[in-house]
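Lecture notes, continued. The same structure-token format from the folding unit now serves as the input rather than the output. Read the line below as a description of shape only.
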């Protein structure tokens, strides 16, 4: 039997629904049979939420070092040891600091290969800010920690729909200035590679959305499609990427055309995420592509409005765990298949015959 995947899970904002969806997911004992969970959090916070939600059946194995984690147990690495005040549904500096500590330690363990993949529970992007975290979100933080000659790409995905973003956490007023031919080609290249390696799609088909209403209406409603997006699509096609566009976003989703593609590249956050969450809110997963590590998260936020009310669905979190494990396995299989490629064969093609040219091999044997 192969060794189980170690799944690191950060507890996120303790005033939100993170612990609720975590407790609900692990109330199904079968989950911990599939992998080794390593929760980066606080035993006191976990106990508080257990009492509020009456989840006494979920028992954590409290550890102080990652090496103490055991298979078959719900391991909780007690990395936030101080008494933290929990104020459900409220954004507080204490909760932000607690979320950062867990994320920072988990990222270090990911570097040290003490865990295999990372699943992050929702944070408050404002309260987590400090001198070590000055990013708009997880994606940018992880890019800063792990980027290796590449750039992170946010992909929202479920079993049938994948939406990637050219720009993510920036104001809408800055989107047009940020978009460039080079950036779109970069994102298409990363998306194409991720679809092949992470999702095992041999020949991915990618749709590219326009920026303006009706995809600019041939320049009448904006020239970005004519001057930036269409040329970028053409350049990507010339590089061997099977992509088409730009499409008018409303009609593209409204007519169900998205079903014809393996992934969609949207120009900005809400253009891609509003239709995605409308179609796949409960099953959707946020995946950070383009990095050497695997990180996923539920596709929702802290949900302060329902925190502590036993109303949050754990399905997106569960799917985030499954997807992280699948991508980790897919990458390993993809890389192993390419570790020792067969020697390139050179063929001399004549009229109707095909002859294998082994001249190089014969010369080698004569010299040997």
């Amino acid at each position: 039997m192969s060794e189980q995947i170690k799944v690191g899970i950060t507890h996120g904002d303790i005033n939100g629904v993170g612990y609720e969806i975590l407790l609900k997911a692990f109330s199904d004992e079968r989950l911990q049979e599939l992998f080794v969970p390593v929760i980066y959090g606080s035993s006191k916070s976990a106990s508080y939420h257990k009492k509020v939600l009456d989840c006494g059946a979920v028992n954590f194995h409290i550890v102080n070092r990652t090496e103490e984690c055991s298979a078959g147990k719900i391991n909780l690495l007690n990395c936030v040891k101080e008494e933290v005040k929990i104020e459900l549904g409220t954004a507080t500096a204490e909760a932000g600091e607690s979320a950062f500590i867990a994320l920072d330690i988990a990222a270090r363990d990911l570097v040290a290969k003490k865990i295999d993949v990372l699943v992050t529970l929702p944070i408050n992007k404002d309260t987590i800010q400090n001198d070590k975290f000055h990013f708009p979100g997880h994606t940018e933080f992880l890019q800063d920690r792990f980027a290796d000659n590449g750039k992170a790409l946010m992909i929202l995905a479920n079993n049938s729909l994948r939406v990637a973003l050219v720009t993510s956490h920036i104001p809408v007023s800055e989107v047009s200035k940020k978009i460039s031919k080079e950036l779109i080609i970069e994102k298409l290249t990363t998306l194409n590679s991720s679809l092949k390696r992470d999702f095992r799609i041999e020949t991915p088909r990618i749709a590219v959305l326009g920026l303006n209403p009706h995809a600019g209406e041939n320049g009448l409603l904006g020239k970005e499609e004519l001057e930036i997006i269409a040329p970028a699509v053409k350049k990507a096609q010339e590089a061997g990427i099977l992509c088409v566009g730009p499409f008018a976003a409303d009609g593209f989703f409204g007519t169900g055309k998205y079903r014809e593609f393996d992934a969609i590249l949207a120009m900005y956050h809400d253009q891609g995420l509003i239709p995605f969450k409308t179609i796949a809110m409960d099953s959707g997963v946020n995946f950070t592509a383009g990095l050497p590590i695997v990180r996923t998260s539920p596709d929702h936020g802290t949900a302060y409005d329902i925190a502590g009310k036993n109303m949050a669905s754990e399905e997106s979190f569960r799917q985030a765990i499954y997807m992280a494990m699948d991508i980790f396995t897919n990458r390993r299989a993809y890389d192993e298949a390419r570790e020792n490629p067969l020697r390139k064969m050179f063929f001399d093609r004549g009229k109707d015959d095909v002859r294998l040219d082994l001249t190089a091999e014969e010369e080698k044997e004569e010299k040997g």
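Point for the exam: Residues 96 and 129 are 7 Å apart (CA to CA).
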